[in-house]
Amino acid sequence: MLSDSARQQLEEQGFLILPGFLSADEVAGFNERVEQLFAEEGDQAGSEFKNEPGARRIANAVDKGGIFEKVIETPEVLEGIEAVLGPDFKLSSLNVRSASPHNKTAQPLHVDSGALPDKDGYSVCNSVWMLDDFTEHNGALRVVPGSHRWGRAPEPGAKPEGEILVTGKAGTVVIMNSHLWHGGSENFTDHQRRAMHVYYTRGDKPQQQYQKRLVRPEVQARLSPLGRKLLALDDPRNDELSARGSGASGFMK
Ligand SMILES: O=C(O)CCC(=O)C(=O)O
What we know:
This protein is of the alpha+beta class. It is built from eight helices and nine strands.
């Protein structure tokens, strides 16, 4: 389904924007569940992963509603992920990040899980699902196009030339090679800016959140065969990797 030019954009620039991917009703459905979770979890929200000053977070979302179980299986997104990682990949985590109103501190530029490409190529790839419009003022994703090919992670405080903001309407999905230097930007508005991060990693790398431990057995039991595969529930390599440590090194997933 991905055109040659879309694949080329992803390979050369490190990200691909898919506008209008979700309908307004679908966006509203995610936001309703996300706000319920923020209300239920209170101060504990995000604690399965980490808290971040200036942003609200939900972690381990596969465990928190059928819409999240389904979203990890989205075919067009999986095709983009496979274009970056090859056929052997799994979910690393499913999180929500909501950049808080008037947060004047941009999230540092980083690569996800602190990962650099290795002899087998790229190992981390994210999809950023806009649940609010991303504008120039409300904390949109910022990226440095092409930086996934530099083979290094940004130093703290790095201000490379060429950084751009990725703006778009709610319902847009951005497939992003996570070796790309990126981060959230400042939110100068009175409103939150919500996004869902459906994050994948290569089969030989640890998950950011070990799904077999975090997702409740009753949820695991109702997953589709593809869902089980994506969570690596039956992959002994993943159990071994998770015993050695999580993939949460680096600034953020
Ligand atoms: O929410 C965003 O726009 C980017 C967040 C991000 O890169 C992260 O949390 O690792």
